[in-house]
Amino acid sequence: MRRITTSAYQPTEIRVENISENVARVIAYPFETGYAATVAHPLRRLLYTSSVGFAATGIKIDGVEHEFDSIRGMLEDVAIFIINIKNLRFKFKNNSQREILEYHFTGPKELKGSDLVNDLVDIVNPNHYIATINEDCDVKFTIIVEKGIGYVPSEELRDYIDSEFMALDAFFTPVKRAIYDIENILVEDNPNYEKIIFTITTDGQIDPISAFKNALESMYQQLAVFGNIVNVEIPTVVVSSSAVNEHSKLFESIDNLNLSARSFNCLDKANIEFIGELALMEENELKNLKNLGKKSLEEIKSVMEEIGYPVGGSQIADQKRELSKRIENLKNQKKEG
Description:
Elements: E1 13-20, E2 23-31, H1 35-50, E3 52-61, H2 78-86, E4 90-92, E5 98-106, E6 109-112, E7 121-123, E8 129-133, E9 138-149, E10 151-152, E11 166-167, E12 170-171, E13 175-187, E14 190-202, H3 208-223, H4 241-246, H5 261-269, H6 275-279, H7 283-287, H8 294-306, H9 320-336
Antiparallel strand pairs: 1-2, 2-14, 3-9, 3-11, 4-7, 5-9, 6-8, 10-12, 13-14
Helix pairs in contact: 1-3
């Protein structure tokens, strides 16, 4: 049943899942109907356009005047060589905004990204193929690498780059893929609230969560201009992520307590599914559970003390409301599943 309200429901739950070094999932909920897409779509665009990365912006090859030239002893034409250089993913080892990198190679050799690693830069795709040179090749080239966002075509860089260099299309964005899914989620008795699930993949220049942070910062900066004419009070949202991280044990099933069958069955009949429900109870509440005998009570108290959450303890006193809400949502999701 939908109730009449005067403000939209404020999301309180966020979870981060690190799938691999360059892939992460960010899950946030619950949003009012329609709000999830409103938030997710611009964030996805900002992930591509505002994440900071590194790219080659210019190249100078000794003895080469233009990209349609050739290099003695190199299998690839200059145009292909330049494309391979553009596809390298650099990463500065310092806080520099711009580096000029000089290289000199003689053959026979197969050049790969790892050959360009030096004291100034790393290559995050070290196995990337660049060129094959034979014993007749003696090639010297200089690359300008810069820090930036988004994509800048070479036409816009020609006046900016030194005339000795050929300007390159600069693909700064480190985000290879940013997608989101929206799922319905039950809140109280309303199944129409929404959950956003972001999946972010980067190329290794930065990690996915840093890219997500860049997108959020950019969104805040763009919206801040309206504060000049509208005095908007931004509420502080207390999300449960800290509680989830610090007290993750509380969101595990009571199965993990390895209780005796008698104690487990008693809790199961009382609809207690998570360890956190026991941690949130006072001893008198536990005693009053139907059919819970003295022996079972002592067993539960002993096990809870062993894991650091004694029944009626004060470890989570300041987070009771937050943890209770999180557990309620977990139980609702379990019912939906």
